[in-house]
Amino acid sequence: MPEELESFCTIAAKKYYAASLPGLEGRRILVVDDDYYAAQATAEELSARGANVVGPVSNLSDAMDIAGRDLDSDGALLDINLDGQMVYPVAGFLKMHGIPFAFLTGYEERVLPPAFRSSPLFAKPANWTVIASKMPCRGKRPSESGAGLQPL
Question: Do 73 and 30 contact (CB within 8 A), yes or no?
Fold first, then answer.
């Protein structure tokens, strides 16, 4: 009985907490990260904030495949290094198709190619309050995302 009560309280707390968090409710967010635990934590945090997570995916090939099939995503969070392969082809594809994205990585901004330096970069370990408020997504005004993106 105590386990059931604890489970019920956990579910109720998550629903209450998610309802009070801004920015990502109902958004479809692609998660690309090769670290299983980091990817799962990202997916859980996004879900807790009301986002619908696409993925997570851990390699460049799968990320390109999903990005190519799912042009309805509202945004993406990308780790820069996917087991030795850089995520820049995915970032370029998303940019060409007007899908906003941000990097969530341990790398510094200076490693980004010039074409992606205007994209938000969130440092690991993640500050989810900042990410939720500044994550670029379709339909958000530039002042909301903090990234200067135009609504589609």
Answer: yes
Going by pLDDT thresholds of 50, 70 and 90, the confidence category of residue 19 is very low
The pTM assigned to this predicted structure is 0.76
Q: What pLDDT score does 21 carry?
A: 44
Residue 64 domain flag: yes
Read off the pLDDT of residues 31-67 as tens digits, 9 standing for 90 and up. Answer: 999 999 999 999 999 999 899 999 999 999 999 999 9
| Distance separating alpha carbons of residues 150 and 48, to the nearest angstrom | 26
Q: Which helix (H) or strand (E) element contains residue 22?
A: none
In a domain, 151, yes or no: no
**CATH code of the domain containing 34:** 3.40.50.2300
- What range does the domain containing 57 cover? 2-145
Q: Print the SS3 string covering 63-132.
A: HHHHHHHCCCCCEEEECCEECCEECHHHHHHHHHCCCCEEEEECCCHHHCCHHHCCCCEEECCCCHHHHH
* Structural domains counted in the chain: 1
